[in-house]
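Long-time lurker, first post.

We've been arguing in lab meeting about whether 2-acetamido-2-deoxy-beta-D-glucopyranose would sit comfortably in this protein at all. Half the group thinks yes, half thinks no, and nobody has a model to point at. So I'm putting the question to the forum: if I give you the sequence and the SMILES, can you give me back a predicted structure of the complex? Inputs are below. Any interpretation is welcome too.
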Amino acid sequence: MAAFLFGLLFFAMQPPPIPSAPTAYSSSTLSPLPPPSDNGTTSMAHPNGTVQQLPDIVIIGVRKGGTRALIEMLSLHSAVAAAENEVHFFDWEIHFQKGLPWYLSQMPYALPGQRTVEKTPAYFTSSKVPRRLHQVNPDVKLLLILRDPTERVLSDYTQVYYNRLLKHKRHQPIEEVLVKDGEVNLGYKALNRSLYYVHMQNWLRYFPLDSIHVVDGDALIRDPFPEVKRVERFLRLPPQINASNFYFNRTKGFYCLRDHGRERCLHDSKGRAHPRVAPDILHKLYRFFHEPNRKFFELVGRTFDWN
Ligand SMILES: *[C@@H]1O[C@H](CO)[C@@H](O)[C@H](O)[C@H]1NC(C)=O
Ligand SMILES: *[C@@H]1O[C@H](CO)[C@@H](O)[C@H](O)[C@H]1NC(C)=O
Ligand SMILES: *[C@@H]1O[C@H](CO)[C@@H](O)[C@H](O)[C@H]1NC(C)=O
Ligand SMILES: *[C@@H]1O[C@H](CO)[C@@H](O)[C@H](O)[C@H]1NC(C)=O
Ligand SMILES: *[C@@H]1O[C@H](CO)[C@@H](O)[C@H](O)[C@H]1NC(C)=O
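Top reply:
Settle the argument with this. Predicted structure of the protein with 2-acetamido-2-deoxy-beta-D-glucopyranose, as tokens:
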């Protein structure tokens, strides 16, 4: 019995036989790739020639960093198919428990040769996501778009403020959430989300630094074209996005996109004015982030022009 099992194991460990000479009808350069030997968990082909596939590019964050702008700009490229909604597969248990077939069902219909991208800004700050994503695709290319951490906190507060306003809920004035007993309030979640090095350390336990491209979100808004070209290069996409894909809208005060003659600006909730914050509190925040920022720069081997 044991010998039989061992024999099976041994057989299973044999490398596949290599043909000693190429056969006349199989040419390694011309024959198409063999169909992927999966059972519908990594891709799902449709009769019209499109395919739903697991993303090989994920925009992981950060919340209020400019992820919507980034995915819209990336979608200008014809080799990119982008998921429309934030999927929240790896961070929400209710989704994660549905498994990969559900994740796949959330993916866009990609044309042959297109690469699939999804963005969920909450991934970056969720500690369980890196391990889960690595298990699904260790070779995934990650995009992380960041802004000045203080600006990001204010933007985060502003979004919550408007959401509560819409629901007629009470909101706390910004000074009250940012500072407690004269100190920066570490219990404020939005503040934690801006401690980029804390979260980055967690990602770097699973992914090499060269799988993660950090996009300068402040630069992307000021002048999108050079930042987007860097992303294009990082992803090894054929160069295609060009300066004429962007135009400045004076009324809005920022860039809009031109895609095959179609013009697109971001939703009005993007780029909302921040609340006025007392200068002493603002400076307290700048000072507070100084050390966390330095740690982040050290982790990624690059500095950013933050306050
Ligand atoms: C499909 O295949 C993957 C490995 O390729 C495996 O992990 C998974 O359990 C399989 N799912 C089903 C439903 O057979
Ligand atoms: C292909 O089929 C899917 C599923 O029926 C559909 O949603 C999608 O729009 C189709 N895409 C094209 C390019 O025809
Ligand atoms: C900040 O968030 C990280 C990751 O979720 C967590 O491990 C850490 O305890 C948080 N820090 C504080 C001060 O809340
Ligand atoms: C820029 O790209 C558009 C299509 O996206 C193309 O029509 C146009 O010719 C390109 N312009 C330049 C200068 O390459
Ligand atoms: C510029 O922005 C304004 C204000 O949001 C908008 O009404 C207008 O349609 C935009 N124009 C172009 C050409 O994008």
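For your lab meeting: The mean pLDDT is 87. The pocket of 2-acetamido-2-deoxy-beta-D-glucopyranose (ligand 3) is lined by residues 125, 127, 186, 192, 198 (CB under 6 Å). Whichever side wins, do check it experimentally.
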